[in-house]
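Allow me, if you will, to draw on your knowledge of protein folds for a short while. I am sending you one protein, given as its amino acid sequence and as whole-number tokens for its backbone shapes. Kindly check, if you would, that the fold set down in the tokens agrees with what the sequence suggests. The record follows directly beneath this note:
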Amino acid sequence: MKIFFFLLLTLVSSAVAEIEWRSFENADKTKSFQGRLVGYNPLTKKVTVQRQSTLRPVTFQINLLSEEHRTFVESRAIELEAAGGLRMMFYENVHKVGSTRSGSTKTSSYDGGYKIEIRNYLRRAIQDVSVDYLIVYRKDSTKGNGTRSIKRGSRNLTALIPNYDENIVINGIPLTSYYKAGSVTRAAGST
């Protein structure tokens, strides 16, 4: 059964770094560039910033930044460590709920959705995590492109325990597949 799905997941917590573009200045404030902070290693004092102009990450010593920007980077060290220690996996989760026959056509109904698996690879728990998700899918796709539908949701997690999988199951996307006898054509869509 094929159907077009797009999943956008945003993980918001005290453990996720700021992802907005900002200006970074050098130590004597004579040069600057637009970018977003994506990494910081407090042991080596190296900063990784994704440049807005090239979208490529650039790594350099923190002492090359102005005092204001060094403070900004160091204040985000814990969030950046946590963001680098998370893994998210997405699995399609479809269960058959019924089937009917009418002449040469068999119609099967399914409850579709996803399972989101989140694992914390850090040595400490990440507290107060909120997971917001947005699933975009097509309805009635057997009749052309169909219409776009959206399913939104949010889950609050007390903590992400180290080396433990936290699972979020999202159901409630109705799917229907049609099979015609004597034909190899198979179509799927939601109703």
Remarks:
- The first strand starts at residue 5 and ends at 13.
- Helices lie at 67-75, 77-84.
- The radius of gyration is 23 Å.
